[in-house]
Amino acid sequence: MDPSQARMHLHNTVLVAITLQLSLLLPTLMRLIHRYYMKEPYHTSILSGYAWVQELLHGHPERIRTELGVHKEVFHALIGELRSMGHGDTKYVTLEEQLAIFLYTSVTGLSIRHVGERFQRANGTISK
Fold first, then answer.
1. DSSP character for 24?
2. DSSP secondary structure of 26-50
């Protein structure tokens, strides 16, 4: 093989290697772009965490005890005590929902991700 053919062979080999690497890299790059720039809402349940807590508070008395481990009167007493200690609603989460998140996590032992799904909240919100 003369030097010209050797250079052409090396050039073709390099092009094949670059093409192969790009074909492996592009799908991953496209997934990252889609994930961070074309966000799709994750929590889309019609029943928000707030609505679920309201359903528990206004529904059958045993449901709140089953789900949160306390009777409705105890739940209201805890809310009153927390408010008297200076706790309150945050910008997006009511004190009632915050307490329900804590109690539900304590009763079920579920992961932050699973509790977030139940309450339709981000993992960071649940962990606070």
1. H
2. HHHHHHHHHHHHS---S---SS-HH
